[in-house]
Design brief:
mainly alpha; 87% helix
């Protein structure tokens, strides 16, 4: 056996050790990829029904919001109608009532004698 043969055997041994050392991380990385594949498959299987439920919930919420919008618009219309009716009643009934009240108050003061003409004058004022 010559020196070249021995060097070749040493190089082959070092290469075999290097391959063995690199094989362990590669095998572990393969196991990690297998677990990752299982996790992604599990997530996909659980997410698909969840997306269906979310879609149903969003559709139901939109239907309820449409109902709330119609109720809100009806309340807004009713509020505008009440405001218009209130201003109509105020203008047609309120002002004549104020005039009648002030007239009756003046008439009452005149009948009782509480008016300015019935007050006694002070002698210093003359």
């Amino acid at each position: 056996m010559s020196g070249a043969d021995i060097a070749g055997l040493i190089a082959a041994g070092v290469f075999a050790v290097l391959v063995a050392l690199l094989a362990l991380p590669i095998l572990k990385l393969g196991k990690v990829f297998d677990e990752l594949t299982l996790t992604i498959r599990s997530l996909n299987n659980e997410t698909t029904p969840l997306i269906g439920e979310v879609t149903k919930t969003v559709a139901s919420t939109n239907a309820q919001l449409d109902k709330v919008d119609s109720i809100t618009s009806n309340v807004s219309d009713a509020s505008a109608n009440v405001s218009a009716l209130s201003s109509l009643v105020t203008s047609t009934v309120g002002q004549p009532l104020i005039k009648v009240a002030s007239f009756s108050h003046g008439l009452r003061k005149a009948v009782k004698g509480d008016g300015p003409a019935s007050r006694p004058r002070h002698p210093e004022a003359e």
